[in-house]
Amino acid sequence: MTQVDEIAARYLAVWHESDPAARDAAVAGLWSADARVCAGANEYVGHDAITRRVAAAHEKFVAGQGLAFRPLGAAEAHHDGMRIRWQMAPASGGDAVSGGVQFLLLDAGGHIRLDYQFTDF
Fold first, then answer.
1. pLDDT tens-digit profile of 40-55?
2. Does the model's pTM come out above 0.85?
């Protein structure tokens, strides 16, 4: 598994993590301490804000609606950037209810420093 594949797998997995301590550790392992996430009109800066965002998405979509985030094709890298295409669909199977692209810029240590979400549907 390449570093890009590993980051993409960890990125998608963090949204499914139900244990708060494991989720906190996963966020700290993926994003830099001062990372910035831009999703729609919202912006989240730092581990605490990102953890709250991930927890809220987990509660709403995974725990609340039984949805799962899954990759749509392979992650791609270009210099210090990478792109993850994703879908959100019922965990039990069925058509995607949402999907989009995450464009990530990584720091020298391989942590996400900028995370831009583009939702396609």
1. 999 999 999 999 999 9
2. yes
